[in-house]
Amino acid sequence: MTTTRHTLSTVAARNRPLCRRCCGVALDMGSARTRVWIAGRGLIADVPTVAFPGTGAVYPIQRGTIIDTPGCARMLERLLGHRLPRIIRPLVVVTSPVLDGVAYRSAARTAVQALRPRSVLTVPSARAVAQAAGADLSRPLLVIDIGAHLTEVVLLSDGAVVDARRTALGTSDLTATMPAQISEAVVTMVTAMLRQDRTTLTVDALHTDVLLAGGGVLRPEITYQLTGRLQAPLRIVSAPHTAAVRGAAQLLQAAHAHPSTNSCAPPHTH
């Protein structure tokens, strides 16, 4: 019996976040995949974004829009309900698409209540990508995020979103859409930014650093065409498919390290 108790306690300790006082979760809920990072454990889930209400699989996020908030809540409960101690209320950082961000953030905050959070912070996915890349946020920065169902082009200045474009195209469309069409869509969005920018921010970003992220960046035929069409220095973020959640995790760690969190009140992120 003593051996059994020791084994059970060891398993429980392994399943408990290392920092009970600073329990935190970083979430990147995309249309195709959901990625979860837990303080003290790292990336613990990279799974399809799907819920099972009892009548089969349901996909609660489509083209960057949460269409089934209860479904998202069920998914989070399934993924994290057994991994977070019930007596702990975590700080949660959630990435969100830039466009339609208000609706997404509202629905995401509601869904995350399934985790009984102490507080919920949201951060634009592009900002999280820049954070993961260790980019110099004091300079204009262009972030191109090519996902499974959505592609975003976002211009950041001092870490804040200045302009953003998106198209409902991604790697999941490659059976019907040639890679050239995704590259062309990106070029079209960047060109529109240049034409409407009354400052030099977009030009400066193209001349300094353009970050490529998202699973689509792992397709060499897409990145090759972008390199030729944009004629700008392109930098592929390390592990581009998980960059957003890793950036959110860094922001989560920064929030825990901030003096204001001594009273469990995290600094404002977005």
Number of strands: 12
Helical residue percent?
Answer: 25-40%
From the alpha-carbon coordinates, what is the Rg to the nearest angstrom?
20 Å
CATH class category of the largest domain: Alpha Beta
- What percent strand? 15-25%
- Output the number of helix runs: 8
Task: Write the CATH fold name of the largest domain.
Answer: Nucleotidyltransferase, domain 5
User: What is the end-to-end distance?
Assistant: 51 Å
Low-confidence stretches: 1-18, 261-270
Please name the fourth-level CATH homologous superfamily of the largest domain.
ATPase, nucleotide binding domain
Shape: globular
Order of helices and strands: HEEEEEHEHEHEEEHHEHEH
Q: Give a short account of the largest sheet.
A: 5 strands, mixed
Please give the order of strands in the largest beta sheet: 3-2-1-6-7
The CATH level-2 architecture of the largest domain is identified as 2-Layer Sandwich
Give the rounded overall mean pLDDT. Answer: 86
Look at the helices and sheets and give the structural class.
alpha/beta
